[in-house]
Amino acid sequence: MRIFVIAALSLVPAVTLAAQPQPVSAAARRGLETITAGDVKRRIQIIADDSMRGRDTPSPGLEATARYIAAEFKQFGLTPAGDGGAFIQRYPLPGARSDGKASGPVRTAPNVVGMLEGSDPELKREFIVLSAHMDHVGIGAPVNGDSIYNGADDDASGTAGVLELAEALSRPGARPKRSVIFLTVSGEEHGLWGSGWFSEHPPVPIAQIVADLNIDMIGRNWKDTIVVIGKEHSDLGTTLDRVARAHPELGMKAIDDIWPEENFYFRSDHYNFARKGVPILFFFNGTHPDYHGPNDEPDRIDAEKESRIVRLIYFITQEVGNAPQRPAWNPASYKKIVRPQTRD
Known about the structure:
Layout: E1 3-5, H1 26-32, H2 37-47, H3 60-75, E2 79-80, E3 88-91, E4 109-116, E5 127-133, E6 139-143, E7 146-148, H4 152-169, E8 179-185, H5 193-200, E9 209-215, E10 225-229, H6 236-246, E11 253-255, H7 270-274, E12 280-284, H8 303-322, H9 331-337, E13 341-343
Parallel strand pairs: 5-8, 5-9, 9-12, 10-11
Antiparallel strand pairs: 1-13, 2-4, 3-4, 4-8, 6-7, 10-12
Helix pairs in contact: 1-4, 2-4, 2-8, 4-8, 6-8
């Protein structure tokens, strides 16, 4: 017998929102200053280097990327939130049995999970997830002799963003009141495998995750604009608009989804949070002629533009992390998107 349960996560009456964001402390401002175009460029060059061989799931290049991210999380002083006190969370590839075993060999794949405890004794029990996928599509048909599909924009750019945010938020005095989970997943290109596993096996109860800010492709296209998908589904959209208006110095306009026919809302890792009842925002600059090809190279990334987008996400994280109330769903969107959870 199967019992269908809908957990009313984050489905609370909307509250009157302040016209202006909460003030950002001097210490938090100092954290912000660590987010630089130079760091963004350096990180993308590491993650999307030819030596990573396109970071397919599974592959040695993906494993090397996961080790690099884990080492960075350790350097920032984050708490490991993967398996057995490590930063790496492993999941079975499709074909394994539900108990993680299979009739033949099982080549598992990595997620990387680090946690920053919030500064408030009560609100630290709630969590914001900052996510990106670290995998890409590996080796493909050669174009002008190049067969390595580096995935600099898709999604070394988002992965670098998560690393920049982890460094900034872990600076002394920059922690928000709520805790933050920094998550890089794999298997996105094959069907959102890693985030699907994480959403079923989170290090904290899913009901305590109040938001997911997902970053997938933010290093190309417009100089002063970023599409933020999912704005209309929760009051995170109002929060985003309020924060963006308060920081004109970023020179970054956050706009609604301009490709609804593409169904991007259902095509990146945030969806595995949304279907569980977690409000989301998805930061995305759209595709381009180099998408899923060997020309998605680090030298084509606009690191200065990306650094401003990451700074915007930093301000949003501070706003959500310090707000008295957790984000709230639009009730109509909740009914449409959140899937009934099942149990035997």
